[in-house]
Amino acid sequence: MGHGKYIDPFKAGDSLGLRPRNDNVTPSEASVSHHRVKAGETLNLEYVVLPGESRDIDINIDLIGPGAEAHIKALYLCKADEKVNFRILMHHRAPGCRSTQLINGIAGGEAQVNFGGTIVVAPDAQQTEAYQENHNIVLTETAKVDTRPQLEIYADDVKCSHGATVGQLNADELFYMRSRGVPEAEARTLQMLSFLSPVIPAGREEEIEQVLRSYAE
Amino acid sequence: MLDIINLHAKIGDKEILKGINLHIGPGEVHAVMGPNGAGKSTLSDVLTGRPDYEVTEGSILYKGEDLLAKSPEERAWAGLFLSFQYPIEIPGVTITAFMKAAVNAKRKAQGLPELKAGDFLKLMKQKMALVQMKPEFAKREVNVGFSGGEKKRNEIFQMALLEPDLSILDETDSGLDVDALKIVADGVNTLRSPEKSAIIITHYHKLLEYVQPDVVHVLKAGQIVKTGGRELIDAIESQGFDQF
Questions:
Q1: CA-based, 20 to 30 A from A36: which of A49, A60, B204, B206?
Q2: What's the CA gap between B92 and A170, in Å, rounded?
Q3: What is the domain-level CATH number for residue B233?
Q4: Is the entire prediction scored with pTM above 0.90?
Q5: pLDDT, tens only, A195-215
Q6: What is the pLDDT of residue A89?
C-alpha cells in the first residue's frame, strides 16, 4: 500500500515535478512526453538508446478513462561515457486500466544510467493491473547503474508488481558456449541479444544484432 | 592424441590435481574412476580451459600441441569436447542458434565455408535422431526446462554434431534412468572409431557396461593411483575405492 497522502497531480501541478502536457511531440523527437490515455485507448511507447547517445527520457502517463492501457518498452546500450536517465510516472487514475513497463539495458565503459520509475494507483482506480520491470547488465567496474522502482497504491483491488535487477553476463553460460567452439565475442553477443530481445522493437532485430556484434568485440 | 605430464592444478589456494600423468592414444577409450572430491571434474575443467583453475606445474600435449596455451574455443576447434556434468541453461538462446554458431566457428577455423541453413538443419535433425531427441527441441532454449535425461541427451547430440576427436564425458551417467542411459551409451558407441578417443569420468560402473573402456584409471586425492583393464571396474564395484 502507498505511504502518505494521495495527491492528484492535476490539482497539485508542479509539486510532483510534472512537466506541462505536450501530446503533439512523439517520443523519438523529444525526451519529455506527457500522455493522457482515454477510456478504451491503448498507448504503446518504444525507446531505443544506442551507444554514443546520452538521453534524458521523461515519460508521464495518465490513464484517465476506464479500460485505458499503456505499454512501454525501452532498451539502452552504453559503451563509453554516456549518461542515460529514465524517469517514468505511470499514473492510474481510472478503474480497470492496465500498464506494463519493461526497460532492459547494458552499461559498459564509464556509462551512468539512472532509472526512476513510479506507478501511482489512485483511490478510484480499482481493478488496476500495473507491472514494471527494469533489468540491467553492467559490463565494467566503472559503469554505474542506479535503479529505483516505486509503487504508490491507494486503491485496494489491484494487481501490481515491480522488479529491478542489476547483474553481469553469466560466466557459466559464457564458458559453456566457448567450450563448444563459439568464439567469446559471439557468445557475448548471443547472451546480450537474448537479454535484450524482449525489448527490441519489431523489425529492428537485425540492426540491434549488428550493433551488439560491434559492441561485443 | 593426449599426453598429460605431471599436471598440478589449483582453484583459489586449494591444490586439487597433484601430479597427473595420462597418455591416451588414437581410438582409445579411457575410464577415469574415483570417489567424490578426487579431482575428476577438475581434470575435465582444466582440459577444456575453464578460467577458474590455475595450472601450477606440468603440461598437456594434445595432438602434439600445447593445449594449455589455447582458449576454450580454440580447443573445441581442435576437436576437444566436454560433456558437462551439469549442462548449463542458456535462456533466450535456441539450440539451433547455439549449434549453428558453434559448427560454423569450427568450420571457419578449419578454412571451410559456413554450412547453408538447409544443410545445417538437415544435419542437426540427423544427429538429434541419434539420441532420440524430438525435432521440436531444435527451437527450444538451450537446456531451459529440460529434464536431467534430456540435458544429457542434448550433450551427446552436440557431441555428435561437432564430431570431436577427443570427447570427455564427465559423469554423463549421473541422474539417468536405465532407458536414458542406454540411449546415451548407444549415441556414444555410434561415435567410436579408430581415430576418435574418449575419456569417461565416472564414480559408477553402469555406463561402463554399455561403453567398454580400453583402459581404466583410478583417481584419488588428485593422483592416478592405479591403472589397469576392465577388471578394475569389477574390483571397484565389489570393494570400493578404499583398497587403492
A1: A49
A2: 13
A3: 3.40.50.300
A4: no
A5: 999 999 999 999 999 999 888
A6: 97
